[in-house]
Specification:
CATH topology of the largest domain in chain A: Ubiquitin-like (UB roll)
Low-confidence stretches of chain A: none
Shape of chain A: globular
Chains: A alpha+beta (162), B alpha+beta (288), C alpha+beta (762)
Mean pLDDT of chain B: 96
Strand content of chain A: 15-25%
Helix content of chain A: 25-40%
Distance between the termini of chain B: 55 Å
Radius of gyration of chain A: 16 Å
Structural class of chain B: alpha+beta
Oligomer: heterotrimer
Number of strands of chain B: 14
Mean pLDDT of chain A: 97
Shape of chain B: globular
Low-confidence stretches of chain B: none
CATH architecture of the largest domain in chain A: Roll
Strand order of the largest sheet of chain B: 4-5-10-6-7
Strand order of the largest sheet of chain A: 2-1-5-3-4
Radius of gyration of chain B: 19 Å
Largest sheet of chain A: 5 strands, mixed
Strand content of chain B: 15-25%
Largest sheet of chain B: 5 strands, antiparallel
Number of domains of chain A: 2
Structural class of chain A: alpha+beta
Number of helices of chain B: 11
CATH superfamily of the largest domain in chain A: Beta-grasp domain
Order of helices and strands of chain B: EHEHEEEHHHHHHEEEEEEEEEHHH
Number of helices of chain A: 5
Chain lengths: 162, 288, 762
């Protein structure tokens, strides 16, 4: 079976890649584009470690076929910071010690970005329910939620002063 | 998966042709199909992506009722400005499917045609008296949602047929719905039991129509006629609710599996139906 | 041999230790650049995959791999025939001693398959798809055998026997009939009969818990590269690359020096990654194929074939006087070991009464093999299971006596000078202080509403010291490198930098900590046992101290004074003798820049076996609300106090406490291995193996009680394991108080709670 060609925009850059029909977006990100920041924790959409944003929507990249992103804009963890300036979410995660092993962190950061894009002033409960699809086994989520709410506050402040 | 191919037709006709092969599977959100292909439970030769067919993604109104493109993702349902005001039960049910990430992809058609007895959106669609618009080799037809699933993993769709849209009937005043499910955690689980209630009231708050549908307590979602009838003519007093719960319990034919025992499912279905009925009634009263 | 080291007396005000700097590996992790085991790609790399047993128990009659090997793209196929025959040698490694023959048979089945999912063959191919096809082409003939999974069924006469040569040890005489009971453990003291005789009230009770998995989000992953001359490299996400090296070398009869293990970042371990599953297979496949081989488990494989912890049954008989003094305790622990002997029941025996000063006790433990995956260490292995039974029994006693559960614990609390049940005399422990911290915590005054209940429980873990090697060197510009062999699973790398910075008197940002591979540094045992901040930290401090002494010598030489005229303060040498130091203090940078003139590079190594690790105690209080119609449990609030010695980096200590509590809550409420009647795990994925999600938990208040351990330079005690010990009982007790029913069999799933409520009402 010959491979199929797909063209998309990943982290702002146009890319083209070849894939088998059965390869997922996660497979292609990691194995063809060498963007290994998105992780496979379960392969079945239950852990969120592979979370990316496609055309503005938070999705599990393990549940999309690579070919489905034809013409789409894909954002991965590698595109969250701007040059070497961290996104406030990334900085707050560091400040709050909101990661231990760090494996779930890329997925949680992408999910948190999608949360704050959709809802800049979430309550603790809204943040927890939004992030329920991102499993973390190390932290008990406490510092993660604190970091997200703190980043939300900072981003709201930035918007006010901008 | 070495033989697998992927097609993305841009018309209903092309999709019908592609789906006529025995080993073709329709893809909308992919949140069930990809899991099944990966685990080997499904072994299609061809995956037919429906999302580029015009009209399959989107929500519009027609003749006073909503028409929801079958590949519309759950997140879009809650983002719609009026759908959740008119059908809060359908929207909350759809929004309970999986995580935020799943919501960015999962569709009503997928949730229905995957034919899991525990599918969250199905009881609410049945209680709402929703219909499916189905395209196939013989043309287009419409069918009530409750006729689609015939058993776990089985649908009444013929080869080449697929769901194009869901139609919701026009909604009168003082009408609303609700869906509740029982899961062990707070999110992410498959329902152990689910109950949807859709009802309409007169100006005095007396129930004039009511439909109760259950999930995860039988091989398919169940429309329990007696349960709805128990509420008609009442203001959901204890007696009416008790009769409804009895009808719910009598209708349950659950299994015991790793997610719950049959006995528990039956008990909980009644609890959920009672609570959903009260929520729907309160919502309906609020409607102007 | 080490001695307690006191840091240079700078007025005893710590400048770095106790603060919360950003971890040095943090930016890598929040940008997705950190390289975990599955992220490595080498030229010519093949994909390795494993064929697994479809039966829970069967004899292997034949394996035919010819068709698989003939498939284009397949470069190697292996079975246990490709691994050396080993004697049943004991090898101290990881968190529990391994029997090498058992470990080899677990990694690749030999003679018999002992659980569904047991590895039986493996292939290396040029793609995932071809590897999968190759597995399907391997033809295996089995003779299926009856299987047993429940621990009590496995102990019963007539149970299917897993190992014909297993005769129960610890019974006095060696039996003649094979058994599934590998070992009986026993600990006792005093006169049990007299103790019960003196009791006014006796409680006899039984609790059980199901097998639960560590649940790390990163599946096991490694890459192995075997060169033609026998030199190998292995990149592995593990909790101890030296142990990985040792196990691979022993299992494959290789020289240790020929196995270089490079630690990848690790995505969670909790004890489960202190052993090997993939590495030896990847090495064999790499040798046979002549290519590097990457092996990554799927989530399903992780559940089916890597160690959960033991399912267990704990029976407790406990007697007390009316005033609450416990006079006697008898505990029996039955632990499921999985396919090979080695459950943590020994540790459970030792820890079960560790919080209680009881004069008369008898604790018995049974290590029982079952047709389920071989168990692996999981955070305080054995202790949570034991604490479930003992803490609930204490609560039952307290309830019968009408005594407040906190008072009950205070009355019987171990204190300094008390002999622990497992032998040593307690010193510098903070149990009483931890009880007090909860007693006086605002949580205890929050009123409870209908259907709400509060549970208090205590827990203990030994914490270990053990072997660590550390290199510390000063760069020419005065910055420092701290190199250890301890993989960083919780932020320990940050703590190493902090301790070195504290001793050297420089800012933590000037100290770069790295985790070095097995060829770059001497041996360290695993990151586990809550040992790293204690033992590796001790070595770091000693190494930094040696460098400070060395730099004082260099300064003294430079100034021409005796060394006792030099003090080290704020990162510089100061001369006490007037007029001798015309340029003032000599900073670390200045000394480093002129190191060549004063003896050469400034670097040292410390290799030690840290002694004096202090045990830790935790006291938790948990409030729940139970929906009486559905049995659903909501955790409303949770406070965990713990005796941490000294929090080197408080945020990471809090993180350990919060993470352990979350795992304990999952264990208590929803996690369990569900097996079909055919012995197949039915919930081998994160959908139906239900770990807590963010919306399941409240904020977890971690209270750090600091009663220092003087054996550590800064007083640190291990912290990682204690927090998982109390939650099982805390939740069970809270549910009791919310519903009036006492749940004896974990998990506390809604259907069981509803059934118990109905039974009580009916």
């Amino acid at each position: 079976m010959s491979k199929q060609r797909t063209a998309a925009i990943v982290n702002g850059d146009p890319v083209e890649f070849l894939s088998d029909a059965g390869q997922t977006l996660l497979d292609v990100l990691r194995d063809e584009l060498h963007l290994t920041g998105s992780k496979e924790g379960c392969g079945s959409g239950d852990c969120g470690s592979c979370s990316v944003i496609v055309d503005g929507r938070l999705v599990c990249s393990c549940l999309m076929l690579a070919a489905e992103v034809e013409g789409c804009r894909v954002q991965t963890i590698e595109g969250l910071s701007t040059g070497s300036t961290l996104h406030p979410l990334q900085q707050k995660f560091l400040d709050h010690a909101a990661l231990q092993c760090g494996f779930c962190t890329p997925g949680i950061l992408m999910a948190s970005k999608a949360l704050l894009d959709a809802n800049p002033d979430p309550t603790e409960s809204e943040a927890r329910y939004w992030l329920a699809g991102n499993l973390c086994r190390c932290t008990g989520y406490d510092k993660i939620i604190k970091a997200v709410l703190d980043a939300a506050a900072e981003l709201r402040q930035d918007r006010k002063s901008a | 998966m070495a033989q697998l191919s992927y097609l993305s037709p841009s018309s209903v006709d092309d999709a019908v042709k592609a789906l006529s092969g025995a080993s073709s599977r329709a893809l909308s959100g992919g949140t069930d199909l990809l899991v099944q292909v990966r685990s080997g439970r499904a072994k299609p030769d061809q995956i037919v992506d429906l999302k580029r067919i015009p009209g399959l993604i989107g929500i519009r109104t027609e003749n006073g009722g909503f028409v929801i493109g079958s590949a519309t993702c759950g997140a879009m349902l809650s983002e719609h400005p009026t759908l959740s005001t008119v059908w809060p039960g359908i929207v909350e049910a759809a929004n309970l499917i999986g995580s935020t990430q799943i919501q960015g992809r999962a569709s009503l058609a997928g949730n229905l045609c995957n034919a899991s007895p525990a599918a969250d959106s199905v009881p609410a669609l049945i209680a709402a008296r929703a219909t499916c618009v189905i395209a196939g080799p013989a043309g287009t037809r419409e069918a009530a949602v409750e006729t689609i699933v015939t058993g776990p993993g089985k649908t009444s769709l013929a080869a080449g047929e697929f769901v194009v849209a869901f139609k919701l009937p026009p909604r009168g005043l003082k009408a609303s719905d609700a869906y509740l499910r029982m899961i062990p955690r707070t999110e992410m689980d498959i329902a152990i039991a689910g109950a949807a209630v859709s009802l309409a009231l007169d100006a005095d708050g007396v129930c004039t129509s009511a439909f109760v549908a259950l999930g995860a307590v039988a091989p398919t979602a169940l429309l329990v006629a007696e349960a709805g009838q128990a509420l008609i003519g009442s203001r959901l007093e204890t007696g009416a609710l008790t009769h409804m719960e009895e009808a719910v319990r009598a209708a349950c034919q659950p299994i015991s599996d790793k997610r719950g025992t049959a006995d528990y499912r039956t008990k909980i279905a009644a609890v959920l139906a009672q609570r959903a009925a009260v929520i729907a009634w309160n919502r309906a009263k609020e409607q102007a | 041999m080490n001695k307690p080291v006191k840091p240079e007396d700078t007025g005893a005000i710590l400048k770095v230790v106790g603060t919360r700097p950003i971890r040095p590996d943090g930016v890598e992790k929040v940008t997705g650049r950190a390289a975990y085991g599955a992220d490595l790609h080498l030229p010519g790399m093949l994909i390795g995959k494993i064929k697994r047993s479809p039966h829970a128990h069967a004899r292997i009659i034949s394996i035919d791999t010819r068709k698989a090997l003939a498939l284009p793209g397949v470069k190697a196929v292996m079975t246990s025939a490709d691994m050396p025959d080993l004697a049943a040698e004991h090898y101290e490694a990881g968190e529990s001693a391994s029997n090498l023959r058992d470990l080899s048979a677990n990694v690749m089945a030999r003679g018999k398959v002992l659980y569904h999912g047991h590895a039986i063959a493996a292939v290396a191919a040029t793609s995932n798809a071809i590897a999968d096809q190759a597995l399907d082409l391997i033809e295996i003939v089995y003779e299926t055998l009856p299987h047993v999974i429940d621990v009590e069924e496995a102990m019963a006469p007539g149970a299917p026997i897993l190992h014909d040569q297993m005769f129960t040890a610890g019974l006095g005489e060696t039996p003649t009939k094979a058994s599934n009971i590998a070992t009986k453990h026993r600990l006792d003291r005093g006169d049990l009969a007299a103790g019960f005789g003196a009791a006014d009230i006796i409680v006899e009770t039984r609790y059980s818990s199901a097998a639960v998995h560590q649940g790390y989000i990163e599946p096991h992953a490694c890459v192995a590269s075997y060169a033609a001359d026998g030199q190998t490299q292995v990149w592995s996400s593990s909790q101890g690359h030296f142990v990985i090296r040792g196990l691979c070398a022993k299992l494959l009869k290789m020289r240790f020096s020929d196995v270089r293990v490079i630690p990848a970042e690790i995505g969670g371990g909790f004890g489960g990654k202190t052993t090997v599953y993939l590495e030896p297979l990847a090495l064999v496949l790499s040798q046979k194929s002549g290519h590097p081989v990457k092996m990554v488990m799927t989530r399903e494989e992780v559940f089916r074939a890597t160690g959960p912890t033991s399912a267990s049954v704990v029976t407790v008989k406990m007697g007390a006087k009316l005033d609450g003094t416990i006079t006697a305790a008898q505990v029996d622990l039955k632990f499921q070991a999985g396919a090979f002997a080695g459950s943590p029941v020994g540790a459970a025996v030792m820890t079960s009464l560790a919080c209680y000063d009881v004069a008369n006790f008898e604790v018995t433990g049974w290590d029982v093999v079952t047709n389920s995956p071989k168990v692996a260490a999981y955070r305080a292995p054995g202790a949570p299971n034991a604490a479930l039974g003992v803490e609930c029994a204490v609560d039952e006693l307290a309830e019968k006596l009408g005594i407040d559960p906190m008072t009950m614990r205070e009355k019987n609390a171990v204190r300094n000078g008390v002999r622990a049940p497992y032998g040593p005399v307690y010193k510098n422990i903070g149990y009483v202080e931890t009880l007090e911290a909860i007693k006086s915590h605002p949580h205890m005054s929050i009123p409870l509403g209908p259907n709400q209940g509060r549970g208090i429980a205590a827990g203990f873990w030994f914490n270990i010291g053990g072997e660590s090697t550390v290199n510390v060197s000063i760069n020419e510009d005065g910055t420092a490198i701290v190199s250890t062999g301890s993989p960083d699973i919780g932020g320990s790398r940050a703590s190493m930098a902090m301790m070195a910075a504290e001793v050297l008197g420089i800012g933590v940002e000037q100290v770069r900590p790295i985790v070095a591979d097995t060829a770059s540094i001497g041996f360290s045992t695993v990151t586990g046992g809550s040992r790293t901040t204690f033992a590796t930290g001790m070595a770091v401090v000693q190494a930094a101290e040696k460098l400070v002494a060395d730099m004082k010598r260099r300064a003294a030489e430079t100034w021409g004074v005796e060394i006792d005229q030099v003090v080290w303060q704020d990162g510089a040498a100061h001369c006490l003798q007037a007029g001798k130091a015309p340029k003032g203090a000599l900073t670390l940078a200045a000394l480093a820049g002129s190191a060549g003139k004063t003896g050469g590079p400034i670097a040292t190594v410390v290799a030690l076996n840290a002694q004096g690790a202090g045990p830790g105690f935790g006291v938790h209080v948990c409030d729940v609300e139970v929906d009486p119609e559905t049995g659903h449990v909501t955790v409303l609030r949770y406070t965990a106090a713990q005796d941490v010695g000294k929090a080197i980096h408080p945020a990471y200590v809090e993180g350990q406490i919060q993470g352990g509590v979350a795992q304990g809550i999952g264990w208590a409420l929803n996690e369990e291995y569900v097996f079909s009647t055919g012995g197949i795990m039915e919930n081998a994925g994160f959908l139906d193996y239900r770990v807590p999600v963010a919306s399941d938990l409240p904020m977890i208040d971690a209270v750090m009680v600091e009663v220092p351990n003087p054996a550590h330079p800064y007083g640190a005690k291990g912290v990682g394991e204690v927090p998982i010990v109390p939650p099982l009982a805390a939740l069970a007790i809270a549910v009791r108080h919310a519903t009036g029913v006492r749940m004896h069999d974990l998990p506390l799933s809604p259907s069981k709670i509803r059934a118990a409520i109905d039974a009580k009402a009916g």
